Amino acid sequence: MRHGRGLALFAVAATLLSGVALGARQSLPDPSLARPIAAPAHPLPPESATAHLRRFSFLVYGDTRCENSLIPRLLPVKDGREVQQRHARLVEAMLGEVGRRARSRYPVRLAVQTGDAVMDGGTAQQWNVSFVPVVDRLTREGDVPYYFAVGNHDVSYGALGTPSRRAGLRNSLSALTHVLPPEGSPRRLQGYPTYAVGYGNAFFLFLDSQVPDDARQFAWVQAQLEGLDRRRYTHVFAVFHHPPFSSGRHGGRTLEPAPRVFRDRYLPLFRAHRVRMTLAGHEHLLEHWVERYDDGGGRHRRMDHLVTGGGGAPTDVYTAEPDLSAYVRANQSQHVSLEHLVRPGRTVAENPNHFVVVTVDGDDISVEVIAPETPAFGPYGAGRVRLGDAPR
Predict the structure, then answer these.
(1) What does the H/E/C string look like for the chain?
(2) CB of 279 within 8 A of CB of 30?
């Protein structure tokens, strides 16, 4: 009997130990999945809790991925092997800016990235080794919620449901775990990296420009804008990767599919709903366009298009002015005109790594470009520049 009882006790102990071991294995991070960016101690409150706020600032930048490798088998890309060094230096400067503004009238309340976090978004190791540890400093030390729009290197150009897109999408959504609106929320498009965030008098739309002609995404964006309380949300910012206008290697005399669709479909929608500013990357440089138009009610309005892709990816340079004549003609009923407010430089040295601080002051917006390693960089000819024609 004692022998049988001993066997029974051994079996129970073995079962318990195997359960503990299984639980330990299950609690370990999945190496095939991007680790979530660390949550800040103070995430953004619910939209309703910040309706009274009208003064704050946010950081925006993009394209932090490493350079391509001409011989991948002999010289693997750096993403996945080491921390993104240029990106890390920018985050160091961002933390300084967060600290300086902490007790000001315009504290930094969120950071926005315009896409291309890593070279290959389908490879979890690239997120976990190179990107997430850098951004964790911003969320943990700076206590800044971090949001991004996906780029072509993050989720690829594949159609919905393709294997290449699925892997990148899975990692992108995992990295955003702590800031994404929950599944089923009206502020999130199910199955897409497309979502919206409201803070104070500003509303942020994050779109996937890799699927620009996707009807479901367009309908969701349209519904968000149509249902928005514009008495509260004075400023609407649309964040996506591919800029509608640019003069770098992806723009100039080249018109890629995504910018073409955005010009044809999204920009008329944005004008109809008075979107204040688009924030994009893709070009690894800084440039700024101003689109002016009549809103049909006798008001002259302005939509700014900011391209900020100097987050550490190989630097691009100015190539040529894009031909905008067809776009202007197609929208002549609204008297659309475009001004190239800030042009990129023609050399790498003239396009330093940078980030932009956008300050919201009631109905006004101002921007300031910070290039930590090139303090003399002054694309606007001054430090902080107010953008005119604010909606009132």
Answers:
(1) CHHHHHHHHHHHHHHHHHHHHHHHHHHCCCCCCCCCCCCCCCCCCCHHHHCCCCEEEEEEECCCCCCCCCCCCCCCCCCCCCCCHHHHHHHHHHHHHHHHHCCCCCCEEEEEECCCCCCCCCCHHHHHHHHHHHHHHHHHCCCCCEEECCCHHHHCCCCCCCHHHHHHHHHHHHHCCCCCCCCCCCCECCCCCCEEEEECCEEEEECCCCCCCCHHHHHHHHHHHHCCCCCCCCEEEEECCCCCCCCCCCCCCCCCHHHHHHHHHHHHHHHHCCCCEEEECCCCCEEEEEEEEECCCCCEEEEEEEEECCCCCCCCCCCCCCCCHHHHHHCHHHCCEEEEEECCCCCHHHCCCCEEEEEEECCEEEEEEECCCCCCCCCCCCCEEEECCCCC
(2) no
Residue carrying the six token digits 């300086």: 100
Here the tokens at position 299 are 């008001």
Domain boundary assignment for the chain: 1-30, 37-387
**What does the alpha-carbon distance between residue 98 and residue 160 come to, in Å, rounded to a whole number?**
38
Q: b/e map of 208-232 (b: 16 or more CB within 10 Å)?
A: bbbbbebeebbebbeebbeebeeeb
Over residues 195-254, the pLDDT tens digits come to 999 999 999 999 999 999 999 999 999 999 999 999 999 999 999 999 999 999 999 999
- Extract the residue ranges of the chain whose pLDDT is less than 50: 1-26, 390-392
Neighbour tally for 354: CB within 10 Å: 22
Which of the four CATH numbers 3.40.30.10, 3.40.50.300, 3.30.1480.10, 3.60.21.10 does domain 37-387 have? 3.60.21.10
